[in-house]
Every structure is written in structure tokens, then in C-alpha cells.
Amino acid sequence: MPRFGMRKTVHNFISDFLRDGDFHDDVSLESLGLDKADIMMLITRLEDEYGLTAFTSEEDKLLEQAVTANDLWKFLQEINRH
After folding, report:
1. Is the CA virtual torsion 10, 14, 20, 26 positive or negative?
2. pLDDT tens digit string along 40-60?
């Protein structure tokens, strides 16, 4: 999947979750009102969307490091290479 398509999907998933679509991808997910459980749910949904599977350790690492929407799509790009 091209980077732009994956980036757009991540943005759309977050927009749908927030039910208030407009935000910048470099804004903190926490500032948008997402907590760790919300972010984990988004990670799982995005993996399902693309048929990707990350190791639990990779997901745990992302959960600790995911600050923005950009972080989420970069993670998907990374596990897509496996």
C-alpha cells in the first residue's frame, strides 16, 4: 500500500473515532482525547484493515511511543515490510 493511502486511512480512522474529523496528523493523540486503550484499539483496527500482524512486543513499544497519527502510520509501514 502506498504511504499516502496508509496515512489517509490512519487519519480517517482517527477522524471517525473522534466524530469530529479535522485535526493535523502531527498533533498529540492525547490532546485529541485518546487514551492508551483508544490507541490500542486503533492499532488493532488498522492491523485488521491491512491484514497485518505485529508482535506483541512491537505493539507494546508503539503504545509507549505513539504520540501522533504520523507515529501510527509509520508503525504500519514498518510492520508492512515484515
Report:
1. negative
2. 899 889 989 988 887 888 778
